[in-house]
User: Fold these one by one.
Assistant:
Number 1:
Amino acid sequence: MADERAPWPLYGHGDLLRGLWRAARSERLPHGLLFHGPVGLGKFRAARALAQGLFCGAPGDDLGPCGACGPCKRFLSGGHPDLFVIDPPREIDEQIRVGHIVPRDGPGEPGESAASFLALRPSEGGWRIVILRQAERMGEQAQNALLKMLEEPGESVLWVLTTEKVGALLPTIQSRVVSLRFRPLPQEECLAVLAAEGLSPEDARRLARWSGFSPGVALSLGERGVPAMRKLALALLCGELSPFEAAAAVGEVDGVFEGKTPSGRERERARTWIDLCGALLGDLARLAAGADAARLAHGDMAQASGKIALLREPRVLASAVHGLTTARADVDLNLDPGAAIERAAQMLAAREWAQLPG
Amino acid sequence: MKLLCNREKLREGLALANNVIPAKSPKPALVNVCLVATQDALELVGTDLEVALRYRIEDVKVEEPGTAVIPARLAFDFVRDLTGETVTLATQASNCTISSGSDSCELVTVDPDEFPVVAHFDTAGAVSLQAGTFTALVGRTAFAAAREQGRYAMHGVLTEIAEGQLKMVATDGRRLAVASAPIDAPSHPPRPVIVPTKGMQLFCRVISDPLDQIQLSFSDNQIGVKTRHAEVFARLLDGEFPRYQAVIPGESANLVEADAEVLVRKLRLVANVTGEEARAVRLSMKKGTLELFGHSAGRGEARAAMEIEYKGKNAEIAFNPDYVIDGLKNCESGTVVLEFNEKTSPGKFRLGENYIYIVMPITIDT
């Protein structure tokens, strides 16, 4: 799903964008860019900001888009005629099809391709920009189709590819674009992003910490109700809730879970819960091994009650991690997400752990 | 914006605009029509980003000039179903009211800045020509443009003004249509552009009278046509059009002159037995006679003959009959001239003055 928020101002990557806008002004902008780096750092948002800045009719002193001119308004309303975005849905096995790159007839093929978009000259006389999000989702055929287009880009055409797995792209594609690595944001900038998104300082600090200071991940955790789930998990670890009570409460947590169907969204809820349980267990193991609590995302568990400390036995932790892995696999196999949530809750529950067989 | 206009004229304009405006689009602003009220006229602007239309309604009583962007289908449906003779359009804040007598409808408007920019026709450098000349050239060529996916440069009609002629060329790689007509154009360097077939079709649709004068203008990215009531624009195709001149045969050893109508009839007759998988009709020429032969494994075979004027040795050549018929439909005179050298070389059909049609032959087992 496209991120339709105004992409500018963009914390953490402003200098990079200003450099690209300057390059465009002096006609030195390459026809292909690859934004790569860990998830949640704003690569796609930076790509959109770059496009908006190139379209803008009245850029500011910082070279950034004004947000008020006609091209900016059309961009922000999703109607700019010279922008084509390939943003695959976040379903687990959804790939970017060949039909997204070049036209293909047949069921399930997208109606418009990048090639058909680029076949026409620009509508507003400037750039024609294609943003390809999560480029690693292209299969080999799609990558080969893209390669051909990168070899003959056409006049005033800009391709911006974003990926978290640069190694999944063909070397021939990598060699035809200029790679720009996105690095994690400094803590202050990550907090500034979260504050700009309307989070309270306390929530921003907690979510930033849990996400490893990745703003996108932090926002996603917030949207998916992870703070509420974490409270349930801690209550479970402390024995204040039974696994069944916790699982039922997890099913009621408010959150935005991606998926095309209700069951797809429930699977995403289950994944969120299981991943959180995994993260908590991981930090428990690290605490048991003597890690510095201050450096851990969930290091505050060190101050929790003795019931959590009871669980720091490696044998018990290993069994629990195995259980969580199985629950995650069950979800990916489209088995009942409610059962997987319950299983994960049991893995986390203090009393049941003590009874786990060796 | 506030104005009063004739309901029927508004309905006509909205109907035409809705030919351009998509019913659904991932770009939400596109499903709207932009109404621009000036001192004495109302302009309806619609686009699907490939083609765009500005339709002007005259004799409008404008109380307050302005702009409103409203849902195009809804507006058309409502205006069509009204019964009054006149319609009032008025905007208030983010709404546009369409009313006639006691009937009214309030539509939510969109920020005009979110609507795509549609150019105004630039008369500087534009050329004037008779509408019928333009539509005739489109009719003679556009059918030969490619339709299959890919090969975008061939999805349009190469259009060029050079040496006082407007020339149009279209090809799908298996056939080529070239037609030109003299026009009264100021001399400027040739500037070939590739116009999407869809754009050409829209140009022809807005031309209501072939005797009208229209204006044609070219810019870097689009071509525009101005008629009495409308300005229509089509974005140009990017890419390089095939070097078609090399395909047109010069001198030919064999020359057939035939009645175009009879040839079409005979081709249709014989083509009946040929299947979709092997669509070919063999033409065998000898002095005074053309024999047509078609067959299809498992279906049968058919023969026909007709009188022709023929210069050359006994020869034969096979074509896809559909391609030949497509061209012959546009034959300007009653007689068609076919020239070719060998059965493997292209056949050149002369379909009128300044109109040639090349079809690649098909090799068939005899």
Number 2:
Amino acid sequence: MPLRSYTSAPLRLQRPFYPDDSGSCQSAIVHTAGGMVGGDGLDIQVRFGERSQALVTTTAAHKVYRSSGAVAQQRIDLRLEAGAYGEWLPQETILFSGGRFHQSLRVELGPAAVWTGWEITRFGRSARGERFTAGEWQSATEVWQAGRPLWIDRQRLVGGSAVLDSAHGLAGYPVVGAIAILGHDFDPAQLDSLRALAGGADIGVTSLMKGLLCRYRGTSSQQARQWFTQVWQALRPQLGQSAACPPRVWGPSSKSS
Amino acid sequence: MMTIDTDAAALLQLLQLVSPALPVGAFSYSEGLETLTQSDLLQTPAALEDWLLQELRYGAIRLEAAVVGRVHRAFLEDDLAQLAEWNHWLSAVREGAEIRQQSWQMGRSLVRLLNALYPELQPALTACEQPCNFAVAFGLAAAHCRIPVELSLLGYLQSWATNLITAAVKLVPLGQTEGQVTLLRLQDEFAIAADTILSLSDDRLFTSGWGAALASMQHETLYSRLFRS
């Protein structure tokens, strides 16, 4: 359970939840403002103690509204101590057209620590036909262990650019997502079973240095999350953990099957 | 006269480094182009040109070229610690297993070659640590041969495109001449890309190539394959 927590508005940490008797803890971060505007900054730091097991998620989609110029920034720092197993599984980010958002996620793995994380981003409120014709998004993810980077992912999208429609970029799709697991070596043969779970969506699965990565590009954040949840559930037992139990805050729609 | 001699030597060494005859096995990689042809996304010279253009403007090749530039500078400043840092950085950035293997295999071959061509480079090559990425070994060799950094990037990008166009000639209904026309049409883009990349600070190194990343990841499961990436 969280030994110490400190939050200030607009962030709040819900009471931890223990889905089973394995000692694994689920915590949800509430963003009481509901979304970010230009100039906002959010800082989140989580330390996973030695041999602890915890899942951190968010209670709602993260919205970034249209900006008149200033950038909204989010910095997340996760530190996993020796033997810890940490999960960072937030709900999707919805970037309104005209929104400007820079996010960074840095994960530091101690010896034998394992991290699972995902991120799903929707460019424009596509459900109502909005495209990301203006604005800017930047995302820098880095996972380090013993002073070396295991995975560095640096993505950027400029609203209205050719990337929106080119096959090389988004090919007209509004949603991208990725789930990565670092700190564990997988049998390459196992990647096929993860691909099969995606059911024909535009996806890719590959090995990382000491880990694996699944990417999604498509129309539905629901579809992305469903696949990621299945991947998470398929792999969790092999990471030495109990069966994956989707947090209640994801709602009934998050159940995979 | 001295300057001319130096320039001629640098030019000749650049030509040698970027030649398709360089024994690093570049010809066996398509960097996802093979996936695209099989999903009918790459059927015309125009589609090929557009793909290479998007890669030059938004793709991961920019991160490789950025590392060529940084390694070049680090070598001239005798900053050996930086060499290893950028080599590790590039390994972590090249996320597809096949692309990473490509970069490491070509790097290994180039390191072996450089040890034979320029034995004095050995301490710097060792400082990069293993596995050494191709772009890192290339940047070192270019700096050692006194090839200016702008030209090094131009050469790197042009030889990268030449290799992919050669792959496309085997994959797409595309003639040798059309391939050469495509290469020529990209000239301005090489110059713009090299210029822009050299001006980017570390915190501005990004890609937007989701389709390219997926094409390279999906290549791992293609049913029949001519290429290794």
